[in-house]
């Protein structure tokens, strides 16, 4: 493998930043041994926000230290929490309901590339009682936020997405790149009330569930549509651990009394199944045996379901203990095609679409339209990039159809600055005939620092 680095100076009128890109060529290879995955991004961000809203000191053990979680750390600090970094832990002095600084001056939070910090961070901001402006990078400034902002207005917050130009200039904000996106402003506190919100991303519901206990009065949330339910289950699990009072009708309606408070805690964050999925699939496409460690067998993360998908494609999945799972792929060319509903596990679409190329027959990945509103339109991007590598792919409104031939030729592909696309293309390279050159691979650090280092360690040739 070779590395070539091309620094590019990006200049804008608002600020100057250096942007570094890194191209990597990864050749065909088997894998073996063990791969330890980092902690869950979803759990780390929830942990940070709840700790910041609690009154007292919390300890987060084994947090994910990545671009996305760093964005959340800085957001919590901006809102007044003190975050101290120790060996393998973060210690957070929460702010409770107290807002720091001038309660009439907008507090600006730049979430970088972290959509989870944007959506869930609104919950913490809604309890502060001062105006908070959220913005982010170019990808974030295309993320839809109108529906969630409207729900917060129903519950008593003052919100807007149409910030006037003079306010944007005063606060040094770049304009939204899509109507109904950030920058947006929210001013709490929530008074309570009723709202109904369709959730093409579960982060809408998770945000409101985190915010509602801190409202002055009771909140009722109707949910006529919910994608990615396991991620909402993560949030419900946190509410239960925090002994928050609520009632619900499945995931269709929640009633949450107001005037509650989060408590400080001491908790270890489990490994991330989204990150593990790339190594599971690396074993599948290369016909290898690989053990992935640092996981929790009982964790409710939705992407754990990828193991069942791989089993149906012919892989052998064996739990060595409650934290280590071994995946053995069938001989190359013997993966079986299948049909997989990815609604509960949308982040697996990039790597499962790669895996399907190495199966023989037609694989259909469906019921995942929300993949179009992630860091990129992942449905369109994976269709385009896999075709460059020799795949036969059809783009659907809600997914992909892949005519697997058992192989990919290889070539050059664009990662589009999307960490999951980049890591999926790295898996494609392992099973390809001629290798794959991927651009901008540094973006993998957003959720998986050290991914390519671990990938090199488990390659066998």
Q: Which topology of the largest domain does CATH recognise?
A: UDP-n-acetylglucosamine1-carboxyvinyl-transferase, Chain
Percent helix, as a range, is: 25-40%
Termini gap: 11 Å
Percent strand equals: 25-35%
Number of helices: 13
**What CATH architecture label of the largest domain applies?**
Alpha-beta prism
Short description:
The protein has 461 residues and is α/β, with parallel strands linked by helices. It has two domains: 2-38 and 271-458, UDP-n-acetylglucosamine1-carboxyvinyl-transferase, Chain, CATH 3.65.10.10; 41-268, Alpha-beta prism (UDP-n-acetylglucosamine1-carboxyvinyl-transferase, Chain). It has helices at residues 41-53, 67-78, 115-125, 146-154, 165-170, 202-211, 229-241, 273-286, 306-312, 349-357, 378-388, 419-431, 451-458, and strands at residues 2-11, 16-26, 34-36, 57-61, 82-86, 89-93, 107-110, 131-135, 158-160, 184-187, 193-196, 219-222, 247-249, 253-256, 266-268, 289-293, 316-321, 324-328, 335-336, 339-341, 359-366, 392-396, 399-405, 411-413, 436-438.
